[in-house]
Amino acid sequence: MRTYYDIYSEARARLRKAGIGEYSLEARLLLAFAANKTPTDFYRDISMYCTEEYEREALILVSRRENGEPVAYLTGSWEFYGLPVTLTPDVLIPRADTETLVEAVLEELAATDSPRVLDLCCGSGCIGLAIAKNARGAPRVVCADISQKALRIAAGNAADNGIKTPFLCVRADALSAPPPNLGMFDAIMCNPPYIPTPELEGLDASVKDYEPMLALDGGPDGLDFYRPVCSMWTSLLKPGGLLAFECAEGQSGDIIRIAENTGLRHVKTVKDTGNTERAILFTK
Fold it and tell me: The domain containing residue 34 runs over which residues?
């Protein structure tokens, strides 16, 4: 019989050979998931013997990861802003870069008690969740997405994270005018599809082949969503309300011009930990 450590050593070696940078972390996450343990408990039990059935199932997961399938989809969960987020291939995997947007919004809302906020193009709802858990008072969150599957995931994540304040999920197309009766918001946050269509084929296979294209394709110049959000969705902002976007490298100047042409005022642009301009904030 082999121990968990034996399987872990094999998994590390295989993922490393496959060119996966975080091979040790990913091996531990996959093997802990296969054992129905937390990564901490897996490490605690690493010297214990495992069954042949476990070995077989664990190494199937490793093989799938070698072939490019993301760990987050293999395990069905990820962490964002300290919160567990359930995922399926119907939604994007939350990136640490997006925490830059959350931090910037929380800083701007620090003096607003129980803000009403909209997470537009919400996907898994991770941005709205982070605001609901960390904004002052009892934040009221509306998550909007065109994908009904994404909205079900966002609602489930709110329940799983014990959100007690109002957390509403509504179907809406960010490329069109907002549906009636959404009300007014202190802040609108939007992490839209922003990859230019010609660049999609050049994406890493783990993104291109597994993550939803609906959440990636930003049109010919990557800016298809910024225009209607600035021109139509800001009608839902209270006077002095905040509009906050995530963007890709090199897009901030164009987005500022789009927003200012609709009468918005640029508040600030915030860089992520990789020194890329990642979050852009405007006020009405």
Answer: 4-67
**Residue 49: φ, ψ to 5°:** -75, 150
Report the share of the chain in percent with pLDDT over 70.
100
Print the SS3 string covering 33-97.
HHCCCCHHHHHHCCCCECCHHHHHHHHHHHHHHHCCCCHHHHHCEEEECCEEEECCCCCCCCCCC
Rounded to whole angstroms, the maximal C-alpha distance in the chain is 69
- Angle between helix axes 52-66 and 23-34 (nearest 10 degrees) is 140
Please tell me the predicted confidence (pLDDT) of residue 116: 98
Q: What pTM was estimated for this model as a whole?
A: 0.93
SS3 content of the chain, % helix, strand, coil (to 5): 40, 20, 40
Same domain, 44 and 144: no
- Strand pairing partners for 83? 80
Question: How far is Cα of residue 176 from the mean position of the Cα atoms in its chain?
Answer: 22
**CA angle 264-100-258, nearest 5°?**
25
